[in-house]
Design a protein that fits this description.
5 strands; 35% strand; alpha+beta; five-stranded mixed β-sheet; 4 helices
Length: 124
Amino acid sequence: MSEIHFLNIDLDIESKEDIRPIVHFWGEEVMIFRLEEIEGTWRGSFETSEDTENDIVDKYHQLIMSLPPNLRAIWDGCIKRIFDFGFEADSLPRAFQSSLSQSSISKLAEIGGAITVTIYASAD
């Protein structure tokens, strides 16, 4: 039996404008899970290779703050900018906490991010 644990933070964005220039700018700094346009809406889902919640937020913040003005305008115009914190759950421990620093919360607010938490059932 495994214990409850943090998995990663997926960045999910939606835009009426093509987001491929942002993804191209980020290059190999992100792993792409989804990048498609459906009925006029671009959707992208990404992950970084950092391990901890605060390190991942720092990386996303750095990636977004480094966007040149034309790409930052695409980011700012996104319909959704969701940082999805993923956890895998099991019955142990009975209580589990994961904290974000004040700095990380401020960074997410600065880049217009919303937070979602997804709990996945254990694969066991």
